[in-house]
Specification:
- It is globular, with a radius of gyration of 20 Å.
- The strands form two sheets. It has a four-stranded mixed β-sheet with strand order 1-4-3-2. A four-stranded mixed β-sheet has the order 5-8-7-6, with helices on one face.
- It folds into two domains: 22-85, 2,3-Dihydroxybiphenyl 1,2-Dioxygenase, domain 1 (Roll), CATH 3.10.180; 100-159, 2,3-Dihydroxybiphenyl 1,2-Dioxygenase, domain 1 (Roll).
- Helices cover 16% and strands 29% of the residues.
- It is α/β, with parallel strands linked by helices.
- It has helices spanning 32-42, 58-62, 111-120; strands spanning 24-29, 46-48, 66-70, 76-81, 101-105, 125-132, 135-141, 147-152.
Amino acid sequence: MTSLLPTFPPVVSLAQGQLRRIHHLALNVKNMDASRRFYGELLGLKELTGDNVDDTLKELVATGKVANFVTPDGLILDLFYAPDLEPPDPDPQKSFTRAYHLAFDIAPEQFDQAVAMLHANQITIAHGPVTRPTGRGVYFYDPDGFMVEIRCDPSTTAS
């Protein structure tokens, strides 16, 4: 008897665990100054400068076309200047990319301080703070309408 199911060639793939971590995330930004302030000053990420900039990006950084930040766990956030960037819809609540949001982790005891900082800087909260079995989170938008989350694991102490 002949099978009616299609046959596929053997799958060639990377072994589980070969990919070690996310190395970097690149975002296009319309206003480099606003985005640098947002990620560097407001969220406190360290901007890479001088010899800390990857050699392949030094010229782009020097000309203001790229800014690089490093998160506490070593993820590199690359901002690429795209002055003509426009989302398909000006309403940031309508997702316009395949990436949904960028989430930063914070210690549970610092979560409320982070929410207060967002309010103090008049950052519009998209939703939250929310409490789930997985922890707490608050969602807001960067200057280009990309959703960002600050989240923490569940607190081990009563709040």
